[in-house]
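sanity check this record:

:::
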Amino acid sequence: MIKSTSPAQLTLLPQPSSRVESPSALHSKTLASKPVTALTQRAESQLTGPAPRAALVKKSRQSLWYCIYLPQLAGLATEEQRDCLESLAQLVQEFSSAISVQPQAIVFEIRSGLNYFGGAESLHASFKEKARILLAARSLPSEFGYAACPTIEGSLLLARGGDNTLVYRKENLNSALGQLSIETLQLKPEPHRRVINMGIRRLGDLWRLPPAGLRRRFGSDFLALINKALGKAPEPIKNYLPPPAFVHSYELPYEVENLSRLRPVVDEMVAQLCDFLRHRELCASTIELSLLHERREATQLDVGLRQASRSQQHLMLLIDTHLDTLQIPAPVTALRLKVTQFDAFMSHSESLLIGADETPTENTANSLAQFMERLQARLGNEQVKSLNAIEEHCPEYASESVRPGRYETYPLALSGSGDAPAPSNPRPLWLLDEPLLLSLRGGSLYHRQAITLLSGPERIEARWWSGNEVCRDYYVAREGGGSRLWIYRERGGERHWYLHGYFA
């Protein structure tokens, strides 16, 4: 449990002098009965002695990683923990660009920003206040453990120890980390049991053991952790990248009733959006355009894209289509453009071999997707459907009508390369909702005109398990007018003939 520390009892992360970095230990009367010192007397004496100027310059370039450790997150679900840590990481962006999200902790580099923020004390005080507000808003204890040192793993261990310690130089990590309890490693039960059985109670006890023995007993990952904490091994860091966000508002100088007059403003807003997307190698999948009114709820347009885009022309075409059919309850006073879903930008290479027999390319698929987007924008999302194939032998159950999804492809219609194998038996493009009974005249089948069989039969037997068994022989046929038909004959009962679909 982390207890509160009053400002009068705490020296907050002092900044080292320009010539010699002064060791410091942050302590609290409520945390320990006597001050906790991060450096031993021997290490301290080493720092106060003369040192070559070149060595001082080299040390000044060492990173300084500040860690906040939040044990109160342990009781939260995984999603809640991640959400809280990401909120804190976004808060940290004000102080650092190098941010690492760790289990129950945030680590960020502060050395490069000490001068800008007026020293470590000012930076810590500013961040602590903002973090406490965020935690309190989530009904979480607002106190947290913190520490800083030249390594990520080291700062994490020090923060877990709860001593609120600052170590400026790698040379002092041995003594600072050596005072920590072995519990700060948060080992799994079995390795922890073995460590305790060996009589190891503090990290400093590990320093006296040969590395080869540690590797043999606890594995290379354990030894790598120790070496990273001490600055003896590199620490690859995966920087936290905040989720992209784009919201742009524009207040009109006067009320507008004719929506066509909004186009130049919307066009400029979309241009800014596209610049935002290009600079981040992103595309927009869903856009929200809000038309604000005086003393009325905003009119909202949700522009969904089947294929994510960052083309200004494409986005404006969709927005224009929506505006053409829009009825507003009151004049528009302001506009707000927001992206609610992003996708990574995926470039497509065009073929360099252009010939007369060139097959349809990705551009064809994009054109079809854009056409479907325009239909949805004009008619409504629920009025445009796609067919989804189902693994079913019975034809009337082999497909379903669904709302078109994003990134749909049409391999049979667009490939033309022969890569996609054609069905062994042809299927009609138009299937009747209910099969139509055909008549027999003089031994010949009739629909509107006489029918001639072209190929078949294709036997389909299915759904015997459902109590509605299907036993049919299907044929491809042609009627007198030239239409190609898909017909079948029942294999049971009165063996009637039925028309089930039309080919193109």
About this structure: The first strand starts at residue 65 and ends at 69. The chain is about 30% helix and 25% strand.
